[in-house]
């Protein structure tokens, strides 16, 4: 193998094949592609010096979206590799060094690689990968490349990932992770995608899988862009699920640039419905070519079927005629030929070609002479069928190659989307909270309250068994020094902070104490471009270094990788050497990181009390933090107390862990009498006073935290009770509303029945003259109906009395719109209001008298509307009295305004109707007296006088006013003649 091809195989072999990229150089020219250590991405390789020329592959913000042919750049040997661009050969193939010569060992890990290992970020990525739907997505998320990629993400990359996570969580939880669950139908095409941009035919099953990828991309894009119908179409049948669709149906890629993050990603999906249809029409689900793929293929297969039928018939005939020579009646196949199993000693009975013998030699596999031509024809047709099938595969493969780049981008985008969905599902499952990064250069305070260590959550399985950690960094603080008891949770706090920052950078929500995934609020923190950690001494032992030497080596690596926006995590700073020198070295390191290197934030744990004094030198830049210790139970609580220095409690912890009591007491005596501890040989009074002060501060802080937790719990309880009361009130209100509506419906039914009865009564009365007994009976029936209406309306009004009484109602005036309990659902206008709380309301042209308590105000009339309402009521009275007396209001008309109980039930019949049209004024008295006499039993008389000059109507009014049997009168309704008809009510 040429050297170039060998080296190329070396650096792509450990990665999923869909991440491999086709090099732009060719093997055999003596040039080796340089493996750059510039970034932790599959497109980055360590740069090595070649004799004349080397090659470097550019990184991309997300390697899955990089193209295959555009990332090669020629560099000269004079460009030395930089230390900041280091990715070890270990992250590639273990055999890379051997293939490159094998003489040198792998270089030590860089500081950020070591930090990722110390923080166990790879384990976290392994758990996140289990949330992916596709095999390729799982492989990518747990790959070394994806793990190390987090350090290279820019602020913009992380913000886009967090936005994408939030969108996916919101959509996924709302729709049970649809349509993202269809990603599970995407096959692993790691070996297929690189061939999409090159020549060569695909296998049938590969083409079916390509169609399935397009179908999944199509469905996801349709749902996300909301361009599909509300009915979800299945995507499991690959090409067969393709529907008619045009590229114009999709929003253009440029139009998606300002859309939400998830929508923008849809611009990289290029489904091809035409390709789906072609593959679906030509191939079965298992990749076999359909007979309908081409006419020639259909003919060949039909011919093969016919030949097989004839061949089997001939074989069966031979078996029947030469039964004694045949070992088995069932034909079999040897070397693509149909043969019979013939007994060896009767071989001559079945002439033909011998193709095989049994192991014992007792059976001979013979192709009978009569079927040789059939067999030869079948072999020819087989070859022809295979050729035609290859033609179909080639044609379909050509369609794929025509859009190979678009298909490759679609596949890579689906895998990237699957990785995003995995991060979102992990965030939702562990009740994470998003992160908002502070502005660059900001020194604002930031808090991370109630943060869980994600691996401890996964390990315990129950949130109640894991203690969350609080981080409260004040404004301008650059370093926090954590002191306190052994086994108090200091190292866990360091790892929790480191993992929280890495998760935020990677686009994963930070697990917190929220009841569910929190999409409403966000943590705020600075953006840290690097997380550099020195934790524990396991690596020192592995590298045959002492604890102190290991710490120094890692500090050297940290200094080499430092940036102003780094987060530095140092566990047990200054440990492993003389306490005095270790404390001095630790103080020097912290001062240098804060004042000289200007690192954004340093989080340090230590047992050196001298480091606590830094806070008193610069209270803004340094902060003391302690791990809480329960003196009563002699055990740590694993909580951080910010602003309070801690004590080691070593003797108490030794006693709790079971050390001999005599040894513990001896240590206590030595501590009390040791002059080097700050005492005078007769007791360490200064240390005792300092410890007492620290204890008092711890107790005060503990009390404050307790009060705060109690206040928060009470506030949460009050809020919960408020929501419960609101829910109960809403429920009661809904039930009351339902009851009122049911009563109103009952009233409406009563009204409908009453109207039907009135209509029947009117039809009976209008058929002709009726007797006084029938009229009296009808009047009594009207009264009964009226009483039933009012009783039903009163029941409904009493049901809603509480609601109406709760809010004070404004006085009802003329012109206001009201609703009568007697007529549910119908509004009327007040045309008259008396001081006795009685109203005249006009409903659909009919005046109804009602008490004020029997109406509900719907709308107050405006100042402009109120005079119009008064004028509208006046003509009803003035039409019948054009004289000054009528204009001022006659006695009978005024008295009638409050007694219109039966006004709505005045029934007109031939018997109680007096038609005066064409009559002279002097003829009125006799005609009116006769009509009034006829109508005495009915109670109303209808007088038709028309409009004309108005003299006839004036005479009618004057006569009615003087008649002793007339109680009151008014103009008829608009539907009954209006001002041309007067209705008189008899006493």
Summarize the structure in words.
This protein is an alpha+beta fold and 987 residues long. The protein folds into 6 domains: 3-110, no CATH class; 153-272 and 403-428, no CATH class; 295-391, MutS, DNA mismatch repair protein, Chain A, domain 3 (Orthogonal Bundle), CATH 1.10.1420.10; 431-657, Rossmann fold, CATH 3.40.50; 809-873, SH3 type barrels; 886-987, Ribosomal Protein S8, Chain: A, domain 1. It has 30 helices and 27 strands. The strands form 7 sheets. A 6-stranded mixed beta sheet has the order 14-15-16-11-17-18, sandwiched between helices. Strand 4 and strand 5 (337-343) form a beta hairpin. Helix 5 packs across helix 13, helix 8 (204-225) packs across helix 13 and helix 11 (295-321) packs antiparallel against helix 12. The longest helix has 81 residues, at 685-765. The N and C termini lie far apart (126 Å).
CATH class of the largest domain: Alpha Beta
Q: If helices are DSSP runs of H or I spanning 4 or more residues, what is the number of helices? A: 30
> What's the β-strand tally?
27
Strand content: 5-15%
Largest sheet, in brief, is: 6 strands, mixed
Helical amount = 40-55%
The rounded distance between the terminal residues' Cα atoms is 126 Å
Q: Briefly note the CATH topology name of the largest domain.
A: Rossmann fold
Rg over alpha carbons: 48 Å
Category from helices, strands and their pairing = alpha+beta
Q: List low-pLDDT spans.
A: 1-104, 227-253, 677-683, 800-808, 867-891, 893-905
Spatial order of the strands in the main sheet?
14-15-16-11-17-18
CATH second-level architecture of the largest domain:
3-Layer(aba) Sandwich
Mean pLDDT comes to 74
Tally the structural domains: 6
CATH superfamily of the largest domain: P-loop containing nucleotide triphosphate hydrolases
Overall body shape? flat
